[in-house]
């Protein structure tokens, strides 16, 4: 749908240029730019939603690992659970950093 809209708008833009109708061409270009910005905003919102969902999944898994750790009887199983938890905490920190960069980029514009 989005690609077709862009293609149609570019066809109209080219027609306006061929006709020498610069105001119409400018209007079409502004609509294309607005559509691009809206598309970018939608993509950023989608990415943020996915990151937030992943953080919730990580937190839930960390809680389960904590419970499993408390019930683990062997040192080996506790070590494995600990290593899983560390990996999840690293991933969580990376996601938080990415969210912070995104937030900072929004505030700087």
Give a description of the structure.
The chain is built from 3 helices and no strands. The protein is mainly α. The radius of gyration is 24 Å and the shape is rod-shaped.
List the topology elements.
Blueprint lengths: L1 H18 L2 H50 L3 H34 L1
Quick structural gist:
By secondary structure, this protein is mainly alpha-helical. It is built from three helices and no strands.
Give short descriptive properties of this protein.
94% helix; single chain; mainly alpha
The biggest beta sheet is recorded as: none
Count the DSSP helices: 3
Gyration radius (Cα, Å) is: 24 Å
Count of distinct strands: 0
Give the topology string: H per helix, E per strand.
HHH
Tertiary shape: rod-shaped
Query: Low-confidence parts, pLDDT < 50 over ≥5 residues?
Result: none
Mean pLDDT: 91
Secondary-structure-based class equals mainly alpha
Strand content: under 5%
């Amino acid at each position: 749908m989005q690609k077709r809209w862009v293609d149609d708008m570019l066809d109209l833009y080219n027609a306006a240029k061929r006709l020498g109708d610069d105001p119409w061409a400018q209007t079409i270009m502004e609509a294309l730019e607005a559509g691009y910005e809206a598309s970018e905003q939608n993509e950023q919102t989608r990415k943020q939603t996915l990151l937030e969902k992943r953080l919730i999944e990580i937190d839930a898994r960390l809680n389960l690992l904590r419970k499993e750790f408390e019930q683990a009887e062997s040192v080996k199983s506790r070590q494995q659970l600990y290593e899983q938890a560390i990996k999840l905490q690293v991933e969580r920190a990376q996601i938080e950093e990415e969210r912070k960069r995104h937030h900072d980029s929004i505030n700087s514009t």
